[in-house]
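[job 4417] fold queue: 2 targets
>>> target A
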Amino acid sequence: MVRTDSENTDFRNLVKDLDTFLRITDGDEHEFYNQYNHIDVIKHTAVAYLNNQPVGCGALKPYDSDCIEIKRMFTKSEARGNGIATKILQELEAWAKELKYKSCILETGIRQIEAIALYNKNNYQLIPNYGQYKNVINSLCFKKDLL
């Protein structure tokens, strides 16, 4: 696992793979979601490697003074089932604690069955949709307090 930023080539390439995946999964709603996922403003990213190959990523984006948002979570299909997404999530949570944030929030789509299972397994609680997702029926928002 490498902590880096959004200039990292491996991170950028994984995000391209993520966007390709989401274009299919989100369908007509992809452009709506995509407008909130620009990586040029993200300073905290993590990239996971398997056999020296980049296979997963995630990022942190400040939401307010106490809360940070988890963004751009992705694991390549061929690397799934190895616990990589959980390791990325745990790394991001540890980093958020080091940065003195008290909680993490995130949004995922209702069609992202694997993502929903990941967040439930890692003790994220379903919350009312926040910010730009407030009235989006195909969005699910989660929160986890960092103790």
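>>> target B
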Amino acid sequence: MARRDGRELAFQALYSWNVGGVDIDTLLKFDWKEPEKLEDMGSDVLTFARLLTTGTIEHIDEIDEIIKKHLVNWDFERLNKVDLAILRISVYPLLFQKDIHPSIIIDEAIGISKEFGADDSYKFVNAVLDNIRKDLPEN
């Protein structure tokens, strides 16, 4: 559950960055969460969320190109901003966190999209991430 909390925080931060233009220093404070909830999450969760957020933003061009390459009959510019944030925070670990199995990353993305996305977002997110996973080089 701890990693899930971290992924949700990173998703919310990336969404705010994309939609609201919030700067990264402000994002990494997670001010929108109640202080006691942040404290309950613990430092490991916050560190993981910060890693996902900063890593995704640092590699945003590469991540977006991979997403664009794997969209079938869909224009990147028309992507729902919630789905885009979920895809971005999921592609980052697929590419750069090889210690996390791709199926875990995809399952977490599906869970977040069921909670925060539109009714069928999880199907779209699953399809795009699964296509990306299939193209990843084997370790």
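[job 4417] complete. Note on B: The first helix runs from residue 2 to 20.
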